[in-house]
């Protein structure tokens, strides 16, 4: 080395932390072959996985009769929903894509992934289907892309509109799907006995979430109330419902609601929705209570000392913190709710699961359980994955605000 | 600065007569009498568990007293919720543990009550919020969250938050006890400035330098009672009670 003398810098420079970088081989070595028994396990599992996958793939590509899915795709998606009104279901999906595109552009963290996703979406969706569905899916993809592009362009101005859009989305969907009273016209009434398939499953879930959420929060607050009667009623409700399986609640809703509300005819779907809401609310209340208990007393005292009344204190200080603390649990609960809606088969509704059973009863498709249930599982799996991925994003987002 | 004697009786802003409080069977306050004039700075000190916090919290009804009467700014404290909320609007409180709202930014912490209780516009509240943040010396922290601030900064935000409601009375419950030593001064400086601006203050603290500098009257609490009270010169120079003497010698020797 040369003889240049280096003087110490006045202050140690701040350096970025060292980043770990692996080559492919390095990663393999570290994660799969670090010791001899790890290597052995890797090899054994590798062989097992390859064997299983091979036979599964072989079955899926050569033996499976997927025409049971393609021939009944409409049934799986919307059940008996009239063909003339199918555009309304599509309109809901298009709006959803638009809102997601907008939201991703406004609040999303990874804008590059957003650009790639929404850029590729129209093409990806369009190759999934053919005929009318292809056109519709193309519109869905384009709507998402437009939403994303718009939000990149005017993200500040569109924020309010997007929030408003989400707020009115749910009532709008209900309006579009059910239609209005008049018998004909573009928004003619579609009675709920025609709702089915994935459409019904999603509606049951969304209605369950949207209504059980406020009800559950109220029950959780009521359980903490200083009024003994309110508290007792909430505790009784929560404990009774939690002590009973969902099927029972669904049956009770079918049988009892007409008794409680004589003279009013409530259709079966609405009764099932009521059952799901009442059931879910009790669990939600317990989960929210967990979040409430995690709030230190000092938060209540600070809020009170500032002159906030009980409602303002709860809405502005306590609930935001309590709910934020239980988001992962609530999302888990909503995912469970989504899957539990399949129990409405028992009370005779044709949700995704109900349609699967109906399809399997068709003489042409007898004995194709594997294909049908795999497909149904795939649909459930995709939606559950999306929900949990969203909740992880949301959590990361909220934690970053700390 | 002993102003107590020069005040008119109608200058009284807090009147406590024979205030008692029980926690279950435990008699925590045993007949507290205190009168506080507008602009007076009161320092309350005494051993742990002597009822200082309990007392100061009865003034804004975070704790309910069970006997005697408390009149704050002409309003008698009863079960009447509207009266309680009125009194809470007139009294700011600063806690030992800061109790900032962790989910809100510093600015939102400060403007929340003015907007939702006083009904100010957001712009108006933020303008005043910014003035207050300048007053406590941390205007550059407005958009941060409490968790990103040091203890001393958090406590100064808490003071700003209480002041934002433009209270007539400020209650402090050991505001520097949870702070690292190097941060105590920055909080005390804000409180001294506040005292000199003429704010009525009730301060539970063992910072005797602060008491000596700005207190008008000091109260020594022990076992739920006021053992001795008087201006700082008297309490420090010539305490009457043996218990006061002993306690002072203990905390001043630290
Ligand atoms: N919520 C409570 N329930 C029961 N006892 C309490 C409660 N708060 C305070 N105490 C008791 O009352 C006494 C006075 O407490 P406190 O006013 O906090 O004292 P200080 O603030 O002077 O340390 C203590 O003995 C304490 O244990
Ligand atoms: Mg205390």
Describe the structure.
The complex is a heterodimer of chains A (402) and B (254). With 402 residues, chain A is an all-alpha fold. Chain A folds into two domains: 108 residues, no CATH class; 210 residues, MetI-like fold. In chain A, 74% of the residues lie in helices and 0% in strands. In chain A, helix 3 packs across helix 8. Chain A is globular and about 65 Å long. The two termini of chain A are 49 Å apart. The model of chain A has no long low-confidence stretch (mean pLDDT 87). Chain B has 254 residues and is of the alpha/beta class. Helices cover 38% and strands 25% of the residues of chain B. Chain B has nine helices and ten strands. Chain B has a six-stranded mixed β-sheet with strand order 6-7-8-3-9-10, sandwiched between helices. The longest helix of chain B has 16 residues. Chains A and B meet through helix 12 and helix 13 of A and helix 2, strand 6 and helix 3 of B. Bound molecules: adenosine-5'-diphosphate and magnesium ion. Chain A: Its main location: membrane. Chain A: Pfam families: BPD_transp_1. Chain A: This is Amino acid ABC transporter permease. Chain A: It is a multi-pass membrane protein. Chain A: One of its GO terms (molecular function) is transmembrane transporter activity.
Quickly describe the structure.
Chain A has 402 residues and is mostly helical. Chain A is 74% helix and 0% strand. Chain A contains 15 helices and no strands.
What are the SSEs and their pairings?
The complex is a heterodimer of chains A (402) and B (254).
Chain A: H1 24-32, H2 36-63, H3 67-78, H4 86-107, H5 111-126, H6 132-153, H7 155-178, H8 197-223, H9 228-242, H10 246-260, H11 268-293, H12 297-305, H13 310-340, H14 352-360, H15 369-400
Chain B: E1 12-23, E2 26-37, E3 41-45, H1 52-59, E4 67-72, E5 75-76, H2 81-90, E6 91-94, H3 106-116, H4 122-135, H5 151-163, E7 169-173, H6 181-196, E8 200-204, H7 208-214, E9 217-222, E10 225-230, H8 232-237, H9 242-252
Parallel strand pairs in B: 3-8, 3-9, 6-7, 7-8
Antiparallel strand pairs in B: 1-2, 1-4, 4-5, 9-10
The complex binds adenosine-5'-diphosphate and magnesium ion.
Magnesium ion is lined by residues 52-53, 174 of chain B.
